[in-house]
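Q: What structure does this chain adopt?
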Amino acid sequence: MTGQAAPRIIDVVVVGAGHAGLAMSHVLSRGGIEHVLLERGEIANSWRTERWDSLRLLTPNWMTRLPGCPYAGDDPDGYMRAGEVASFIAAYACAMSAPVRTNTAVRCVEPDDDGYRVTTDRGDWRCRAVVLASGAFGTPVVPRLSQAVPAGVHQLTAHEYRNPAQLAEGGILVVGASATGVQLAQELRRSGRSVTLAVGEHVRLPRVHRGRDIQWWMLASGVLDQRIEDADEPARARRVPSPQLAGTPERATLDLNALQAQGVEIVGRLAGIRDGQAQFSGSLRNVCALADLKMNRLLDAIDEWARQRGLADGAGSEARCAPTAVPVSSRLGLALGKDVRTILWATGLRADHSWLRAPVFGPDGALRHDRGVVAPGLYVLGLPYLRRRKSSFIHGAEDDVRALGAHLAAHLERTARPAAMSCLAPR
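A:
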């Protein structure tokens, strides 16, 4: 009987070959550190297989860059489709000859002797450091009240949604009004469906401000570079929903006013389901007023920054979005199965680290880390507000991997032992 193959030994294992994992690979390669990237599918797998058909980035193309690879296309102010993002990431991996093992699913990562053991469906690895770069948005978050939805009502998540054709005829309730929720509500309404959008806490932004994309202003003024340690409530800052934005050739603002003008009905947060009725909170007006207030505070800060640097003159008008129009008496209930035949849960995604066997999770099940450092030799990348507000953006990976790469290299140097660890020493 043949025994199990001995694990392969290497300095660092990077779990995931998306943009964050490849950015870290770039840093490790430049430092001469031997490593491997393990990817469960093809490179940029999630962009190829886990996005709806019409999705575009929320950031303009000129922001789509990685270490050593600026945007070089002919449409800097456009917004890439998911397939284009996948191609950009794959080309980056090819250009840097990244050591990627595709179609290799990680089953378990656990502490082992002086480092970690990584178990995959294609054999095991032993290493002194692991970088978790498997993505921040792997598992849909669906509230428990979904269990009370009547059996005849179709339910699916934004993770599963591809296009309107896959939904049954009849009314649709979209739950969640962040970027995903408003984009899908608009797409479904344009397909001729009756759409109701349940709105909770959200972030409202104009697509364009003073003639430039709002992301230009947020990057130039330093908003996207704000560090997590400077946030008033770090835990809350990491839970802020993605802003109501859409990347379209027209650079149109997509907010609740635009949706209502197109025939989408807005209601308050989905608060419960009872006797086949969806029940909505009566706080819609307050929630929208708060989103308007925060948007205008941000724009005030940007305008003041622009004035101080002489950028206000000739940079477009200061016209602001109209306050969110809230119905005088918004609906508080809908009959599921009658008014609504489909519920689309746009209630967010979370990282999936279920294969990580280590005491590094908090009571809520979330991974505990200090700006990306999880434990000695264990790192995570790509999570919202990991180190800076831009950490989960493609271009935000560069600063994070430089900082964490330096920390990782110091760890390898500090833990290297001339005899026992000579085979693991950085090259």
